[in-house]
Structure formats: C-alpha cells, structure tokens
Amino acid sequence: MLPEYEDELNKFHSFSIDSVIVLNGNFYVGCVQTTEDMLNIGFDVNTRVNDKIFYNIIGDWVNSKFDGSLMMRPVFGDKLLTSTTKPEANISETEVYLYPNPVKTTLNINIKSKKTNNSLNMSIINIEGKLIYSSLINNSKIIDFTDYSEGVYFLKFTDKNSSFSETKKIIKVN
C-alpha cells in the first residue's frame, strides 16, 4: 500500500484489504516509514499501553518509553460509516453513550431517550460470539470490566418490543 494523507488535522484515514485474511493468535498492526517525511500518527496520552508499542530503527525491536497509545487500530467487518452524524433514516428517540472506550476498569453507560420508559436489555458478547453478560438498564449503569480479558466486545441494546436495537463495539485494554 502506498501512503495516503488527509488534508486536515484530526482526520482518520482507512486502508481496506481486498482479500480475506484469517488471523490466529497474536497479530500486529504497524507501518513502515519509506521516506524521510514526517510520519503523522495520533497519540492518545489518556490510554497507557506503551508496553504494547514497539519500534525498530536499527534492526532491534524496542519498547516505547512514551506513556500513551497510538491511534492506529484495526477494524474488522463491514465498511464503517465515517460520518459524525447519523443518516436521517436512522434517527432514533433513544441514544446510547459508552465511555471510556477503550475501557480499562469500569465502563459507563448512559441512555438518553424521549420515551417515558427508556429501559433497555443489554447483552455483552465477546469476539467469539458468546454471551458473557446481560442486564436491564434504565438510565445509566456502570459495568466492572476489571476481570474481562483484553479484546473486543460488542454491547447490544434492545427495547421490550424490539423497536430499538443498537450494537456498540468496545475495546478492553489492561
């Protein structure tokens, strides 16, 4: 792949892989600097995972000494909607907010709804598709993620009559 750039600050760029790649075990995401131009990659100082960031300048892989995380993440599945606004057809009376994402210890869930009864069924599903937790949420909930393994989780929210359904992805880091 050749380098591609965005013309503005605070923009993300996606690279698509045309063929299916089956992953087993650990995998690594990275880039190779092929020119002397600046390599502009975002750095999140709020999420410290520098023990998982490595660089190689002279042939040896060295662990990063900078506290934070690179803003370079793999995306699995269908093409993402990259707009910051929802399409008109999907405007809902219910909004689900999750933070922080990635989560280390506790995940905060807030539900904003124009309906008088805004309770939702919530399911947490791991990357293998297994249901690992379910609960009813009224307005907000805090979930302890301390004992969860590092990885990707999906939170599915539905109302009683299935008129609302939304799935959110979160990443658990240690």
For this entry, give a set of tags:
174 residues; mainly beta; Immunoglobulin-like; 2 domains; 4-stranded antiparallel sheet; 3-stranded antiparallel sheet; 0% helix; elongated
Summarize the structure.
This protein has 174 residues and is mainly beta. It has strands at 43-44, 54-56, 61-63, 69-70, 94-99, 106-113, 120-126, 131-137, 140-144, 151-158, 165-172. Helices cover 0% and strands 34% of the residues.
Topology:
Blueprint: E1 43-44, E2 54-56, E3 61-63, E4 69-70, E5 94-99, E6 106-113, E7 120-126, E8 131-137, E9 140-144, E10 151-158, E11 165-172
Antiparallel strand pairs: 1-4, 2-3, 5-6, 6-9, 7-8, 7-10, 10-11
Kindly state the percentage of residues in helix.
Answer: under 10%
Largest sheet: 4 strands, antiparallel
CATH architecture of the largest domain: Sandwich
Low-confidence stretches: 83-90
CA-based shape: elongated
Radius of gyration: 19 Å
CATH topology of the largest domain: Immunoglobulin-like
- Number of helical segments with 4 or more residues: 0
- Structural class per helix/strand content? mainly beta
Q: Identify the CATH class of the largest domain.
A: Mainly Beta
Q: What is the rounded distance between the termini?
A: 31 Å
Number of strands: 11
Strands of the biggest beta sheet: in what spatial order?
A: 8-7-10-11
- What is the mean predicted local confidence, pLDDT? 79
Strand content: 25-35%
Secondary-structure element order, N to C? EEEEEEEEEEE
Please give the domain count: 2
